[in-house]
Amino acid sequence: MTAAIHARDVTVRAGAATLVDGVSLEVRHGELLALVGPNGAGKSTLLSALSGERALAGGLVELDGRPLSAWQPGALARERAVLTQDNEVAFPFTVAEVVAMGRSPWRGRPEAERDDAVIEESLVRADVAHLAGRAFPSLSGGERARVSLARVLAQGTRIVMLDEPTAALDIRHQEEVFGLARALARAGSAVVVVVHDLSLAAAYADRIAVLDRARLAGLGSPREVLVPELLEAVYGLGVRVIDDPDTRLPVVLPRR
Amino acid sequence: MIARSRRTVAVGAGLAVALVLGVLLSAAVGQLSIAPTEVVGAFLEGLGIVTPWAPAEDVTYQALWQIRFPRVAMSVLVGAALAVAGAVMQAIFGNPLAEPGVVGVSSGAALGAAVAIVTGAAVGSVASLALLAFAGGVAATMLVYLMARANGRTEVVTLLLTGIAVNAFAGAGLALMLFTGDSAAREQIVFWQLGSLNGSRWNEVAVVAVLGTVGIVAALALASRYDLLALGERTAAHLGVRVERLRLVSILVVAVLTGAAVAYAGIIAFVGLVVPHLMRMALGPAHRVLLGASALGGAVLLTYADVAARTLVSGAELPIGLLTSLVGGPFFFWLLRRARSRAGGWA
């Protein structure tokens, strides 16, 4: 089966700096991959390279077996959705209008008939249905993040890329967002999430990719990757990895 | 949502009624006072429909069709063009303070027109004047766009400072044209700087009508993409919008609309700021409705402003640009204060 995302030797440069250096990975449909690593390791840059936003200095990215350069912008928007970190809206659009914008790639196609149902469902899944009539600029940071997530859900794509969707959220909403991401994966989407919280990644991701100074330092199941030796080398901090008493999944704690 | 669409219909109907009344009023008042029934009668007579309302004297008919009607038509077209140009600029800059007059696009276009007049390029051709006004508008818009944008967004301070620079440069150019031109050209340039609808002719109206229609239709066609642009250019791109191309086309649209308005009416500032803003407050920011309502609202505003310009001082005519700036200046202050208190600084 063709991988949803296939990256080979992906390299991104900005001036003299190499932001992503020869990263290869695959994400299959039905899989949730977490991208972790220290600040400045190149997680967001790698994500923007996978999404087609940033030009590659080397290597190749294929979505569904087709190189990014072969995708038309409209078709690409029906195949993959991206949640960026900056969730600003320039004018006082309502939450419902913002989420409806996620349906714009489907305009004029048979799928557009389901627009209203999809928008409604997305509002509920992101727990923002009660905000539908509010103006986006009047929302708190966490509410904005969830509304933007609802917009991404409404886009209804088989590939979903989320850049730190939980950065502004309380722990309940963090769990809900990752639960949602995993539900998307179980329903057949390929989901890539950039996240800082290693325990959160361990609890929900099928596989974890660890980036360190622009390179891939580890790739595998949470159990394989979240080991003290690797994490201490990457983060420069002593860590303890223990098992969650209930789920038996690794939990990462700094040694204090 | 239902409340908003009902509101859209109500505001649209209100503006349409106001426009019809304004057009009637504008055609009726002036040195020669004409009854509204005679205005309607003369209009229908011109279309070949003779009614009992047709004016008794030929001089009334001639005054209406040769002086008043082209002027009224010009005010409607220029108002619509400027308001839509303002709404489009605000959409592509993602900033409610962008406006052709404020950021210097209008003066760029006026400089182009002044060059046409002084070098004689405009002699015998109303189109060449519009062409140079358009070129000046494109140049100024491009300059503002390149200067004021950094990392995909436009800061208010940078935008306004760029406007100062562009206005200063265009002002110098206009002064040079004043200096080199003969007295007839000078008079015309001075009128541009003040803005006036006086002496509008049908062939000029035709040029503005064509350019204005092209620009407004193009803007409406891009409306849904402007909505997506409000999410930021990265997200808009992820939703399938070719952002750079959209911006480039929009700059041409702004230049066409502003060039058309400025070529014969001069600099009439703040219409593109005040009208879209009021429409956004009344109807929300969705661009399809906003652009349509702005066209209508701009036409209404300028029609009444022209009536006021002709009647406020008896025996003389105020420049219409003076009037719009008189109202627009304080409005701009208010917007600035509000933007500052909301954003907590000059963001």
Question: What this model shows, in words?
Answer:
Chain B: It holds the Pfam family FecCD. Chain B: Its main location: membrane. Chain B: It is found in: Cell membrane. Chain B: Keywords: Cell membrane, Membrane, Transmembrane, Transmembrane helix, Transport. Chain B: This is Iron complex transport system permease protein. Chain A: This is Iron complex transport system ATP-binding protein. The complex is a heterodimer of chains A (about 260) and B (about 350). Chain A has a domain at about 75-155. In chain A, α4 (about 115-125) runs antiparallel to α5 (about 140-155). Helix content of chain A is about 30%, strand content about 25%. Chain A contains nine helices and twelve strands. The longest helix of chain A has 16 residues, at about 170-185. In chain A, a hairpin with a 2-residue loop joins β9 (about 205-210) and β10. Chain A has a six-stranded mixed sheet, sandwiched between helices. A four-stranded antiparallel sheet of chain A has the order 2-1-4-5, with helices on one face. Chain A has a two-stranded antiparallel sheet with strand order 11-12. Chain A is globular. By secondary structure, chain A is an alpha/beta fold. With about 350 residues, chain B is mainly α. Chain B has one domain: Orthogonal Bundle (ABC transporter involved in vitamin B12 uptake, BtuC). Chain B is built from 14 helices and two strands; from the N terminus they run αααααββααααααααα. Chain B has helices at about 1-30, 35-45, 60-95, 105-120, 125-150, 155-180, 185-195, 200-220, 225-230, 235-240, 245-265, 270-285, 285-310, 320-345, and strands at about 150, 155. Chain B has a two-stranded antiparallel sheet. In chain B, β1 (about 150) and β2 (about 155) form a beta hairpin. The longest helix of chain B is centred in the first third of the chain and has 36 residues, at about 60-95. Chain B is globular. Chain B starts with a helix and ends with a helix. The interface of A and B includes residues 76, 78, 86, 102 and 155 of A.
